[in-house]
Structure prediction request, 294 residues.
Amino acid sequence: MVDAAGTDRAAAAAAQAALTAVGTSAVLTGPRAALDGALAQARATLAESAERVADDAVRQALAATLEAAEAEAPAASAVRLRALAADVAAAEHGVREAVAARDAAEAEARRAAAAAAAAAAPRRPSTSAPAPSADRSCATTYSGPAFYTSPPTEGGDGSNGRLPASALTAVSWARDSRGTPFYLRHDAAAALERLNAAFRAALGHDLALDLTYRDYDTQVAMRAALGSVAATPGTSSHGTGLAVDVPELPCEYGWDSAARAWLVEHGPSYGWVSPAWARQDGSNPEYWHYEYRG
Prediction:
């Protein structure tokens, strides 16, 4: 009888210990997930911010916070896990602010340099004929028929130019002149949202868009109207939801514009590039075209 009672007590203690372990694990699940998310975001920010801050001390602080949190996390309580996540998020935010500050400073320096160059340029003597207006010199370089961005393809099978609504996301800040949202593949849209936030911080305005997703019928129409300048229907990068065209306005987005300089330099950090064929020395120069490469 004594042995049986002892066995029962041991079993009960083991069961209670198991319940306690389960309860503790459940309590830690949320805080651990929050810390894991903060660590992942911080690692990405640390990698992306290399050589993009004026003082690297802020990145060193983030690296130290990351190392300390990773070392302490395995044995930390729920309260401590939340505190570690907050510490990592604060350090990561500091790096992002430093990147934005440097981008803004560089943009301001470029604007100041452009203003100084304009002020130093010799003024043209007045004549009886008016000088060409700035509006005309900065007018769009596109002279073909009007085309518009496409909504998701109803009943689309997922192939080029036939993407259904489930495959696309609309960007948050713009629509085309007919009110159609600018759609992109989910990951490309998310990356463009992050790019636009940095672009706005640097240049003071949102990135303007002209075309994004292009359905198959529009590709056919553009090929018929523009010839070989337009992609063969079914092969356009726009048909995959992975390309954007900014407005064809040379002064705002052209080869020598501040916007293009920023996009070419910083776009790759967000997965967006000006492809080699679209560069000024490429096979089909298009200063307005950018593609998402992840």
